[in-house]
Amino acid sequence: MISRSHGVLLDCDYIIALTIPHESTHAKAKKIRESLFETPQFILVSTLYELATVCSRKFDHAFACNVLRNIEAADIKRLSVQDIEAEAWKEYYAQTRKSTSFFDCANLAAAKHYSLKIASFDSFYPKDMVAA
User: Fold this and answer.
1) All domains of the chain, ordered by start, with CATH?
2) Which of 19, 32, 28 has its CA nearest to residue 118?
3) Which residues share a beta bridge with 12?
4) How far apart are CA 36 and CA 38, in angstroms?
5) Residues 6+ apart with CB under 8 A from 19
6) Phi and psi dihedrals of 100, rounded to 5?
7) What is the C-alpha separation between 103 and 105, in angstroms, rounded?
C-alpha cells in the first residue's frame, strides 16, 4: 500500500490525448504533463485494462501494446483497485446518470482515498480534483 501523498492519478483520456497528436486535447495534455514534472504519478491497474481496450478498438492492438509498454517503462506507480474497491462501488451506486463508467468511479475513489489530483478531461470529475 502506498502512503497518502500528493500526486496525480492518470485517467485513460489524458493518456490517449497525450499520445495522439491529432486529439483535440493533445496540446492541453502536453501542458499538464509539463506542469506535473517531478510530481508523483499513479495509475489504477483497471485504467491499464481500460486503456488497452480503448486503444485496441480505436486504433489497433500493436498501438495499444506500445502505449502500455511506454507506461510500464515510465515512473508511474500502479495502484490496485482491490485497495479501494468498496469505495469505488459506493461512488458507482451513488451515480444517477446514464453511461456511468465504473473506471471513472474507481479513479474518483482512489483520488479521494490517496489525496490525489486526477489528470483527465472528463467532466465527470469534480473540478477541484482535476489537475490543470
Assistant:
1) 8-126 (3.40.50.1010)
2) 32
3) none
4) 6
5) 67, 70
6) -65, 130
7) 5
Cβ neighbour number for residue 56 with a 10 Å cutoff: 16
Residue 3 pLDDT: 40
**Count of residues for the chain?**
132
Bridge partners of residue 43, in order along the sequence? 78
The x, y and z cell numbers of residue 32, run together, are 499538464
Name which of 16, 120, 118 is nearest 63 in CA terms.
16
Question: Does an H or E element contain 116, and which?
Answer: none
Each residue's pLDDT tens digit in the chain (132 positions)?
A: 334 458 999 999 999 999 999 999 999 999 999 988 889 999 999 999 999 999 999 999 999 999 999 999 998 999 999 989 999 999 999 999 888 899 999 999 999 999 999 999 999 999 999 987
What's the whole-model pTM score?
A: 0.89
